[in-house]
Structures are given as C-alpha cells and as structure tokens.
Amino acid sequence: MAVRQSAGAGGVADEVPGPAVRRTADVDRSDPGYREWLKEAVRKVQADANRSADTHLLRFPLPEAWGIDLYLKDESTHPTGSLKHRLARSLFLYGLCNGWIRPGAPVIEASSGSTAVSEAYFAGLIGVPFIAVMPRTTSAQKTRLIEFHGGQCHLVDDPRTVYEVSARLARETGGHYMDQFTYAERATDWRGNNNIAESIYQQLRLERYPEPAWIVATAGTGGTSATIARYVHYMQYDTLVCVPDPENSCFFDGWVAGDPEVSCESGSRIEGIGRPRMEPSFVPGAIDRMMKVPDAATVASVRALERRMGIRAGGSTGTGLWSSFKIIAEMLAAGRTGSVVTLICDPGDRYLDKYYSDAWLAEQGMDITPYAKAVEGFLDTGAWPC
C-alpha cells in the first residue's frame, strides 16, 4: 500500500527550478536499451487510445418547443473515469518524446486528484513510479484510486504549495515533474487528432444544430478550454466558448482585469477546477466569455442532473451545467435557437462525502435551496431568475 505523506507551507525549498530545469544527464539517449524502452513505452500509451472508444454525447431533456438542444460530453466513461484521461495520455506522450520520462525515475504531479488518478494509471502502464502532490482536502475516493493504480499520495495543507513541493520532490528524486498546469495547452494537439473538440463536432454532425452556438468548458489547468477555443478558430466555426469559474479561483478575476498575476488565498471547494493562480495553460485571449458561479449553484445543478437524467456527476460538471442553463435562458429570451455543449468531467461517486452529502453542505455553511429552486424554475419555464 502506498504511504501518504504530508507537507505544510514550511519546509519547501526557497529556490525551486522552473519547468525548463530537468535532470536528464543520467540517461544516455543513444543507448539501445533506453531506445527500446522508449519505443515500448510510447507504443503502450498510444495503444491505450486504440482500446478506448469515443465518449458519449448525451442529450439533456429540454422542451422541444424551445428550439434549443443541450448536450453533455460524458468524459466520465474514460478508463480512469474522467476528462483528465485525455490530458494524462497527452502529457505522458509529450514527456516521453521529449526525453523527460525515464526508466525507473518517478513521475511527480501537482493535482487536485483526477489528473493524478489518470497519470497513476499511465505510469503503471509503462512501469515507472508515480507521486501525486495534492491538497489534504482532496476526496478520499481519489486518493484510493491513485493508490489502486500504484501511485503514492503526498498531501499538503496549503493548496498553494503543490507546485513548489512537486518541483522539490522531482529534484530530490531525479524524477520528472509533469507540471500539467504549464504543459496542458501545449501537449494536446488542438488542430485535431481526435481531440475533444473534434470529437464534439463529429458527434453533432447529424443533429439539427450541428454547429453549437456555445461550448461551455470549466477550467482546472485551462488546457481543455484552450484546445476547444483554438480548434473553433482553426476550423472557422462561429461557436462561442464560455469558461465558468467557481468561488476561490482566479481565472475569472485575471480574465476581467487582464492580469495573469492575480492570486487568491483559499483553495476551490469544487475539485478539479478553480485555481489559486491563473495557470500558464489558460489562454484568456482564445475564449469569448467567463462566468463566476457560486459553489451552491454548482451543487444545486449537479443534483438537478441526477434528478432529471439519473446521472451522478462531479462538482465541475455542475459549474458548467449552471452556466449552460443561464446561456440557454438568454437564447430563449432573445428568440434564438441552436445547440449548447458542456462536459461531464468525472463521476459523482468520487464525491459522495461532499456534493451529495447534506452534512458536508451544513459544515460548509452552504445553502443550495435558492439555487435549486432557480434551476427547477428554469427547466420548467425557460426563465432565468433576475
């Protein structure tokens, strides 16, 4: 069983190497044994994509008379259960082909959980150790999944220290700090190659509104929204991209102010999205709109999804769903028709002790009642509360 470790704000090295500083001198890149290992590792990661079918595009039940269709791209059906499976595969291929991931050397990642679950899976696939540096508040189910796939969990008290602790562990072990928050937007091929954006448009091609009016994508690293927005512009679509942001996150504030240096003191309660800083992979100039979504609205929306479709999803899905409902209400008020797409990012069984627990809501002082009424009122009438 992997051992959970902990670190507070203290004890972090004063000087931490940046992403470009990597220990690579301990491997002879021309060694036939290393080249064979590398080819086999790349083959195994690529083979995973061939074994996985595309994820489903589900239709949320809205009145036909509205002339608006809402779709949910169900990324929870990936082998590791979340949208982050795509990202982890891309990051591993990127790290392997750059010579950063090496036999026997650990891969280390700063994560709020789901990326670490997926990266632990790929690390086990190619036979290298994996260490996830995560906030102590990460759900217990995620830590169990990381350990199930052979990874270790290094828990920190202050979410803002995950970056420094990850870099320090990589330096001390001679491993590779994957750094999803820097490399998410560059490791993914946004021009196509069956990325999530291309998949959405392919699946919509026989629907009554094949080119969506809006795609709504929440931001953890910012890589998914960057991939979708870049693909939209590259393919010359008219689709607009909205990025909702939860409480205790800096993406919205940085986007509004045009300031990439904004930061906040508290960590997000909506696991998988929301960051205490604007991450390098977030590309604010590529997107069209942002919304600030109260955490109570997120929970109300994800519970409404369970009532209306029998689907229990993670909190980040609720953030995107609330924003999608608001956009649809605006379209109705303006007399517009079309389609809207958002994401089911991961399954709700990872959060039974949080977003589906009334005790947790009470502990957080979170009253979802007015937001639940707003959602049900919208779904019944199409009107958005003022």
From TrEMBL:
Region (Disordered): 1-27
EC annotation from Swiss-Prot or TrEMBL: 4.4.1.1
Keywords assigned: Cytoplasm, Lyase, Pyridoxal phosphate
HAMAP family (UniProt xref): Cds1
Modified residues annotated as N6-(pyridoxal phosphate)lysine in this record: K84
Protein name per the record: L-cysteine desulfhydrase Cds1
Keyword Lyase: yes
Protein function: A cysteine desulfhydrase that generates hydrogen sulfide, H(2)S. The H(2)S produced by this enzyme stimulates respiration in M.tuberculosis, mediated primarily via cytochrome bd with a lesser contribution from cytochrome bc1/aa3. H(2)S modulates the balance between respiration and glycolysis, and also contributes to redox homeostasis. Probably eliminates toxic levels of Cys (which can induce oxidative stress). A cysteine desulfhydrase that generates hydrogen sulfide, H(2)S. The H(2)S produced by this enzyme modulates the balance between respiration and glycolysis, and contributes to redox homeostasis. Probably eliminates toxic levels of Cys (which can induce oxidative stress).
Molecular-function GO terms, alphabetical: lyase activity; pyridoxal phosphate binding
First-listed, main subcellular location of the protein, grouped into a coarse class: cytoplasm
Catalytic activity field: L-cysteine + H2O = hydrogen sulfide + pyruvate + NH4(+) + H(+)
Residue ranges occupied by any Tryptophan synthase beta chain-like PALP domain in the UniProt entry: 55-346
Family: Belongs to the cysteine synthase/cystathionine beta-synthase family. Cds1 subfamily.
Subcellular location: Cytoplasm
One GO cellular component term noted in the UniProt record for this chain: cytoplasm
Any one GO biological process: L-cysteine catabolic process to pyruvate
Cofactor(s) in the UniProt record: pyridoxal 5'-phosphate
